[in-house]
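Course assignment 3, question 2. Fill in each field.
Student: A.L.
Task: Predict the tertiary structure for the chain below.
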Amino acid sequence: MKRKCDRQLILEDGSRYSGYGFGDMQDKILEIVFNTSMVGYQEILSDPSYTDQAVVMTYPLIGNYGMADEDYETDRPTIGALIVHEYNDEPSNFRSNSSLGEVMKKYGIAGISGIDTRKLNRSIRDFGTRKCLLTSIDTPQEEGLQKLRSFSTPTNAVSRVSSKEIWRSPASNAQTGSMSGQVPTPAAEDAVAECETAPAQAHAPAPFH
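Answer field:
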């Protein structure tokens, strides 16, 4: 028996896509963008540059290798939603600790599958990013459009996802050399600088020390 669509994606230009929900099921208004990577959905999910965005994955199958604790880009994903063609909730990977849907539900990330992502991607490519609403299939389209028109996209993403404390990466005694195992030249050794690094906070006063 074919599963009945329970979620929909409404764009501010009036276009609408029906699909199946996974992850968090709350309504979300986000900026829609796309990514054409064949692998790396976990890294995309945890990339802070996608904060408050709904990412359309053009590769047709997402979720098949699960989620591994060692592969996160940040300690807490801040992406808004994933839009996929087909979602696999039964990953096959010896490194997987949980499914994609479980992680998305834990961090409040909405998901919708069953979408013609190539068509949607062409629309974004040709007409640019827009606001979108992920909502129940029962939400009237005009009601969804009214929500989109009255919503202002957040602009303070950097301050929300950047480090709240200064942390330092100590200098290391780096060694240089070629892949063949040859002894590094003096010029190559001079190119290695032993230094301590630390990230600047979003609202750090200048100059940063």
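Instructor remarks: Strands lie at 7-11, 16-23, 28-35, 53-57, 61-62, 81-83, 86-87, 110-113, 131-136. The helical segments are 41-45, 100-106, 117-127, 141-150, 157-161, 186-190.
Grade: pending
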